[in-house]
């Protein structure tokens, strides 16, 4: 399928829609509220409308603020049983992992173990070389802000079949694949989203700390914040999501195939993690309120540049996206898409929303409904 149109669409989506999201079919809607002061019923109506418009199995929105938390469900989490998303559902959060990884890198900067504007060659000697980039010219900041010009390895993988998803590749091989391609641009002359950047950021963490990147994320972020429903899978030993979760689907030749237990994240720093919407809300609020980084490093993280990507109505910070939402709030997020799950979010220091769904929409649908997707998130974020 490497040369057919459907394969090209799949690869295009993997390359460009890491922050895009869609929502599901309209059966089985419901709201559960932790306290009475919660997002209003119109959020449910907007979610249901979006669900029916896009036509995917199911979705769950989790909103959090000062003194309240709400969960809003729409559609189904399992096409076989018709069950909705379970309460506090775990999903594969894909590229949202990058925000955790960037936070760890910036903690190392705060500890003076890494310099943000130092060339990556200093920390990974001999690794970044070839047509795709020169480690003497590319800085740590470039990796986190997608200003390196290093090609995205996902653009050169055939992931259009289930068999391809079952063939894991190590980070080193994927980094080489990206660097074997011509550079997209000279460092810092443009922006271009690249998963290869964050494989290198993960390699940097491992080189500096001497332990796997997932261990550092767990030790520095997951445990201190008490994110009990968030984890870095023990790949290749752990493909099954641990806690209650929806089934994740992908369309192959017009048929929805359950690919929940196939993990193309392969335990890597660009998209390995599993979490709940509530935990993601907690993480982003903690990050933005200064619980994880000193003021200097948080300010660096939030120094954003235009993304130049028509699919992202946002600017690139360091492992974060920035946009101004419908009610004038400056919100920060990342978002991710992989293996039957797409997760969109938006947060401020005092409130956050995470929206999860269990099907990858095609890129055309993503473009057509991006505004509607943001509208659902904004309705919840602006409600209180």
Automatic annotation (TrEMBL):
Keywords, alphabetical: Hydrolase
Q: Name one Pfam family in it.
A: Beta-lactamase
Indicate the segments forming the Beta-lactamase-related domain, all copies: 51-355
Recorded hits in InterPro entries, A to Z, give: AmpC-like, Beta-lactam-related, Beta-lactam/transpept-like
List, in alphabetical order, the Gene Ontology terms for molecular function in this entry.
hydrolase activity
- Gene3D superfamilies, alphabetized: DD-peptidase/beta-lactamase superfamily (3.40.710.10)
Q: What is this protein called?
A: Serine hydrolase
What organism is recorded for this protein?
Nocardia brasiliensis
């Amino acid at each position: 399928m490497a040369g057919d149109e459907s394969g090209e669409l799949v690869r295009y989506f993997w390359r460009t829609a890491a922050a895009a999201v869609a929502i599901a079919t309209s059966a089985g809607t419901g709201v559960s509220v932790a306290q009475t002061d919660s997002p209003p019923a119109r959020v449910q109506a907007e979610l249901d409308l979006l669900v029916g418009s896009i036509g995917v199995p199911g979705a769950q929105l989790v909103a959090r603020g000062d003194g309240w938390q709400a969960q809003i469900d729409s559609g189904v989490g399992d096409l076989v049983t018709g069950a909705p998303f379970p309460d506090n559902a775990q999903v594969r959060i894909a590229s949202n992992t990058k925000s955790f990884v960037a936070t760890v890198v910036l903690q190392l900067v705060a500890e003076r173990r890494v310099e943000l504007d130092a060339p990556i060659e200093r920390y990974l000697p001999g690794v970044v070389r070839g047509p795709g980039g020169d480690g003497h010219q590319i800085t740590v900041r470039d990796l986190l802000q997608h200003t390196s010009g290093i090609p995205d390895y996902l653009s050169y993988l055939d992931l259009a079949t289930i068999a391809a998803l079952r063939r894991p590749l190590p980070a080193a091989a994927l980094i080489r694949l990206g660097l074997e391609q011509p550079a997209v641009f000279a460092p810092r002359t443009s922006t271009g989203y690249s998963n290869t950047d964050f494989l290198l950021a993960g390699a940097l963490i491992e080189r500096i700390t001497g332990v796997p990147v997932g261990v550092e994320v767990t030790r520095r972020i997951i445990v201190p914040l008490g994110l009990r429903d968030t984890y870095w899978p023990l790949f290749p030993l752990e493909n099954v999501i641990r806690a209650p979760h929806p089934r994740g689907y992908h369309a192959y030749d017009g048929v929805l195939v359950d690919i929940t237990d196939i993990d193309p994240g392969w335990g890597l720093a660009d998209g390995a993690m599993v979490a709940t919407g509530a935990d993601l809300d907690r993480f982003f609020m903690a990050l933005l309120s200064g619980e994880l980084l000193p003021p200097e490093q948080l300010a660096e993280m939030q120094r954003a540049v235009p993304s130049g990507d028509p699919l992202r109505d946002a600017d690139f910070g360091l492992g974060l996206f920035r946009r101004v939402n419908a009610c004038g709030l400056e919100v920060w997020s990342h978002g991710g898409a992989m293996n039957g799950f797409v997760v969109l979010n938006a947060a401020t220091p005092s409130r956050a929303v995470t929206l999860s769904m269990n099907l990858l929409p095609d890129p055309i649908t993503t473009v057509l409904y991006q505004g509607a997707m943001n509208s659902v998130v904004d309705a919840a974020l602006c409600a209180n």
